[in-house]
């Protein structure tokens, strides 16, 4: 059974759920959630309406081994399965029930590479756009489901927000920074507080203000798979680094160079990527969310 903690005011209001460590080697969500739980238990933070469910570590076994997953990526197979065969399929069956019981999901992540905070708005409904803007991140990334549908090269992605959208709930994912950056925990904590304030589950957030900021919108355009151990980047790319048309991004083990065919930005480069899995993505900045 996955550890979870419910705080229920008994008053009608939103039911919010927070996920940490969908990927075991991403700690910021777990640490921020544990801090918020402590604040609520000590009454230094109080809910006024609705309920909040916290799941600090969605993949406990993976986190105990400091790995992304045990058998397969939980955020690629996140759905109910009648006869689960992998460790992550068992977890997904339990975690989906938490979303079924809630109205709103914030899924908290971190990245291999350094780079700015961003929100993934895979399903840009009016509600999800409003939610994203309230979190104060400078970038929103769209087009993840379409990219896998059109250019997935055999890879599929059924993640937490896809399930949330399927069952008619509000849900987005935040990337809080690089895995080992202590500031990522602060970003995650702030995102939780802003979520609770935006949905009026708490009233006072001190000197923070929840406003609908103008976020730069990035649309994902290409996905690259690591084909061999010898595939390598020519630079130590950071998340959302600008890439100019014609610029060499990486080189295959075969010697083939991967060049940018258009002006774009680097998205989630995996400096220690696994062979046969996602290596990096490209996207275009199109305007504002």
TrEMBL record:
Transmembrane segments: none annotated. Residues 13-180 form the Succinylglutamate desuccinylase/Aspartoacylase catalytic domain. InterPro entries: AspA/AstE_fam, AstE_AspA_cat. Keywords: Hydrolase, Metal-binding, Zinc. The keyword Zinc applies. Its cofactor is Zn(2+). One of its GO terms (molecular function) is metal ion binding. This is Succinylglutamate desuccinylase/Aspartoacylase catalytic domain-containing protein. It comes from Candidatus Zambryskibacteria bacterium RIFCSPHIGHO2_02_38_10.5. GO terms for cellular component: cytosol.
């Amino acid at each position: 059974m996955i550890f979870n903690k419910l705080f229920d005011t008994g008053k009608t209001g939103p039911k919010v759920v927070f996920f940490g460590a969908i990927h075991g080697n991403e700690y910021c969500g777990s640490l921020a959630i544990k801090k918020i739980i402590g604040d609520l238990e000590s009454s230094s933070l109080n809910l006024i309406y609705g309920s909040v469910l916290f799941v600090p570590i969605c993949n406990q076994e993976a986190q105990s081994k400091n790995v992304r997953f045990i058998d397969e990526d939980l955020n690629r197979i996140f759905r109910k399965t009648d006869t689960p065969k992998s460790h992550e399929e068992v977890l997904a069956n339990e975690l989906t029930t938490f979303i079924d019981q809630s109205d709103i999901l914030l899924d908290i992540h971190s990245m291999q590479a350094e780079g700015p905070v961003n929100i993934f708005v895979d399903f840009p409904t009016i509600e999800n756009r409003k939610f994203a803007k309230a979190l104060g991140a400078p970038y929103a990334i769209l087009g993840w489901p379409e990219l896998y549908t059109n250019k997935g090269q055999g890879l599929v992605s059924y993640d937490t927000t896809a399930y949330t959208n399927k069952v008619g709930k509000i849900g987005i994912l935040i990337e809080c920074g690089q895995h080992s950056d202590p500031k990522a925990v602060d970003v995650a904590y702030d995102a939780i507080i802003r979520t609770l304030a935006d949905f009026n589950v708490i009233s006072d957030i001190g000197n923070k203000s929840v406003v609908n900021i103008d976020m730069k919108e990035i649309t994902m355009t290409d996905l690259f798979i690591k084909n061999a151990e010898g595939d390598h980047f020519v630079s130590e790319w950071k998340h959302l680094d600008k890439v100019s048309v014609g610029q060499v991004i990486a080189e295959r083990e075969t010697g083939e160079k991967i060049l940018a065919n258009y002006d774009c930005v680097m998205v989630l480069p995996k400096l220690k990527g696994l062979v046969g899995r996602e290596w990096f993505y490209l996207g275009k900045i199109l305007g504002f969310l």
